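Hi support team,

I submitted a single chain yesterday and got back a structure, but I'm not sure I'm reading the token output correctly. Could someone confirm the output below corresponds to the sequence I sent? I've pasted both exactly as they appear in my results page.

Thanks,
R.
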Amino acid sequence: MPPTLASLVHHSTLKLTVRAGGDRLDVPVRWAHASELADPVPYMEGGELLLITALKLDAEDAEAMRRYVKRLAAAGVVGLGFAVGVNYADIPKALVEAAEHEGLPLLEVPRRTPFLAISKAVSAAIAADQYRAVTAGFAAQRELTRQALTDGPEGLLASLASQVDGWAALYDASGAVVATAPEWAGRRAALLTADVERLRERPAPASAVVGAGGGDEEGERDRVELHSLGTGRRPRAALAVGTAAALGTAERYALHSAIALLTLTTERSRSLQAAEQRIGAAVLRMLLAGEPDHARAVAGGLYGELLDAPYRIVVAESATAPIGGAREGGSGGVSRSTAGALVAADTNGDPLGGLAECLESAAARAGEAVLVVPEGERLVVLAVDGGAAVGACEEFAAALEGARAEVRGRGEALASASSSSSSSLSSSGLSGLGGSSGDEDELVVGMSGPAGPIAAAAAYKQAEQALSVARRRGRVLVGHEQLAAGSVVPLLADDAVRAFADGLLRPLYEHDATGRGDLVASLRAWLSRHGQWDAAAADLGVHRHTLRYRMRRVEEILGRSLDDPDVRMELWLALKTTAAVGE
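Hi R., thanks for writing in. Yes, this is the structure output for that exact sequence:
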């Protein structure tokens, strides 16, 4: 504890006497400073014990003393020491009354006590306090390290909360509460989710002082310090420490030690992460090669029972976000902020990193294994079927889909209100999010159906097929189940397919444009009725002989026989493709 006026008064060798402000002696003294200036305020920082002999003061002028003392108190001076027997045999009454009026402690310094002795006493007390703080800090560091090694982050938090006489909470990269100490602090920690999200948007390391809430209940007005954990561009986690007052020197040492230890705990070395990614890539290659036994042997216990349980394969692509090598991210849980905070990564140039972070965070929170393999502009994931990572992927995609739809709506509104939609979008900064499926910076994800260890290659193919459909449809995520449940027509929305359809049917459209018949409509009706002449003619409102004549003309123009089932299939798909384009 730093020196106070009371400790100086009780100092056996100083012999100080309290003449005013005796009820305010518990104020800490930051320094002792002697000054004979009539106005020393410009040289004060606050917290000083000012020592004077009144060499240049009219200490018997009541009005002058009131102004003098008032300025000292306003400047943060905590006490005034007056040396008697130098210029005045006793402290003038005017100064005593002024000090009593302002509540400023006034100490009488006897002639035999030099100011230097007081300064030395203050300096020695400050040094002793700092030594105690450093010693306590080293002890706290040893205890925190021991707890981190034996009980992990939970034990470290408990020790930290005890040492700062408050509470502590650890958050994952998405802002979800991972652990608290004591346990009752969970409710207070949950109130800080929005503050953690804002802290996460700042480059690490970052810190902020906030409150846990605005309520009237005890503890909801705690002073809370937030600190980001991690060395990368995006923090891996965050630490909150709540106390009733500002932290002292010893508590600050303990906090900084906890931050360092938690950073080491949550931030794996880049070389270790790269090694794990290489192992993951090797395991994935073995699975896709149909060698699950070799994959299990290489993985060991790294992925738990993931390789034996039903899993899904997720393949994601983005043209602007290669994440090979070490990746920023964290572990923890999926919360309300997962879709909100992590989706921002899509617009910050790292959509694959945001998705990987989301899936790893969800899996870690649920205690399940997940295999994440970055491959340049592609991400391949093995996740437990029905597990937290699969759910987080779907949640992430849904939130991203909604965010892009909102931006598209805003862009369209700007476009309609402007004579030049392109300039409006560019100036508003919204064009980067885009709305079309062809935007190069958009994340697309394909998810396979459930698969077992021997079906990894088939699941990977399913995921790639779903990815292709997602790209064509302008969707963020498409699951393999959706392909079987939908129509094949959307799959035809490809430039090559449309070009083939246009080339195949162009002669018929050119014939109809001359007004010499309606061959396209007749062909569509005939194919839709499976070659039944009477039914197709009835649909067209013509005689069946007329329809037979038109079909012969189709064969003549196209140079193909309608008796060939492959020809009929190609013509039907061409008609469906052109119809889809027209719609």
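A quick pointer for reading it: The longest helix spans residues 115-164. Let us know if anything else looks off.

Best,
Support desk
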